[in-house]
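Structure tokens please, single chain.
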Amino acid sequence: MHIYKVGGAVRDRLLGRPVSDIDWLVVGATVEEMHAKGYRPVGADFPVFLHPTTGEEYALARTERKSGRGYGGFTFHASPDVTLEEDLIRRDLTINAMAEDEAGVLYDPYHGKNDLDQRLLRHVSPAFAEDPLRVLRVARFAARYAPLGFRVAGETLELMRQISASGELQALTAERSWKEIERALMEAQPQVFFQVLQACGALPELLPELEDDTQALVALEQAALHEQPLHVRWACLLHGLAPASIKAVNQRLKAPRECQELALLTGECLAQGNQALALPAMALLELLQKFDVYRRPQRFEDFLVACQMTAFGEGKAGYPQADYLRGAAAAARAVDVKPLVQAGLTGQALGEALKAERLEALEVYQRS
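Here you go.
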């Protein structure tokens, strides 16, 4: 029984990057031996165990073969006879197919260290093409390591093209696709993810609405440079689409509600935000009410930031509309409803009076 540290922990240590999660591989052990040593089983697809003390995951060495369509169409075989090399060859990229033993000795049968040095994302074996999810994973790694100068190897990009053309990407569930997209969006250079998908023909299969939309990627790049949260990055990516297309993308990928709401509102209201300095008071009030700035001020702030990122993406040095709209929102929120209630107004009458007061407050703000 031999235990190895594998995958990302080895890769990132060699790159000098922080190591957060560690994957452990056990070679030469049976399920019964793991039980006897106090490891607790977890997972239904293949034997994975939790360490009795640390709670970290330890997987038995395994092989796999294609048995169906999509990323889940595999049959796994775990056995004490499976070697380290046999386990590593089923992995996606050479840089993820390295291992270290408990003494720190590096095992690199597929030359991942050389590809790290050459800044290449290269597949381990032709079996790479059997799993369509790997197209998204490679694109995500390209986005993560773009600041270090990594690129996708030509032969790997060709395999990704073959997968895209095969129709296998359609077998990916919305949940799996979104998980990769979400992680890619939060990388240092998320625009690279979509550029790689475009280069291998996967973008027309997964997100045809964004095909050749360079402005979307520039806005996304600005959002990443300014370290914006996920929902703002998503809104920036979709900002140029028609509302109907934004709805379609959101529903197809089952994006989180916060992402869906901000993306749709940004698509619907970006033009008004850009024209804010010239909007009449009534149009300004309607914009504020659409965002419900009285109960959900942060959503409006996120919208303003998304607008700002798109402006930066267009080469503008600033976005004065943001501060102007913040001031307008503050003026509208400052209107006190208590005097109207004390005057005995209720229901529709109260709503109309409050709207009139807020409109007047905005008119005063515009004149100031």
